[in-house]
Design goal:
Number of strands: 7
Radius of gyration: 18 Å
Largest sheet: 7 strands, parallel
Order of helices and strands: HEHEHEHEHHEHEHEHHHH
Length: about 280
Amino acid sequence: MLTPFDVNGEVNYEAAWELARYLVDTGTEGIVVCGTTGESPTLSDLEKIALFKTVLESVGDKAYVIAGTGTYDTAHSASMSRKAADLGCHALMAVTPYYSKPPQAGLVAHFSAIADATDLPVMLYNIPGRTARLIEIPTLKELADHPNIVAVKDAVDDLEFTKTELVTLPDDFGVYAGSDAFTYDIVSMGGSGVVSVAAHLVGNQISKMIEAIRSDDGATAERLHLAMMPLFEALFLEPNPMPLKAALGRVWKEVGRPRLPLLPADESVTRQVLKALGEAQLA
């Protein structure tokens, strides 16, 4: 879920409440709060805690609330995880420590410390394009032995990696697509779903595609996938969530500009996103 800001760049908690409800009403089963799309690096701890509370109050028992508590600081991540648990969040998402590029043993120690901090289930977030460090498959396998580490958001964008991941990890370990463009393939291979950016705009269509895959309705699933692919691609013509914020502000309600160092999307990019959205909605 993106984080709405007001005209002064402050978190717009009223809009966040409404957005969380809107996402649930359009097919979302769980909401990641304060992830990358939520511009987590620019949010203070107090803002994150207030956002967790806001979304929990908004969705009630209608959806899982997954708190993005991972940072490149293990102690800070564990502390924020405890605060999220105390508020009543249902799960945690912990990104690979960025910038510091720890060894694989360091990743095991980092994620284990976060998982030990609470009783909540933890989703790992494997996104080497942003963190400069891949959680390798043997490391994932070792982490899957921890009782609280139950899933991974796979934004590696390498289907051969995902295939190996799916056959190596336990059957009850969730593998979620971390890039919308890979949802069709990953769910078709046995993945659990997607942690989506595009669901802000086409949540119902994504839900229908996943349901079609699970129902062995390959023709419907492929049709929806192909119809949405231009949108998936357009949303990353500039760094996420720049295009998403611009588009959602046009078709839903104003969610503010991103915080620096991100900037408002270029108007030409916004037009491409809106054009692709219109075509996807016709599918």
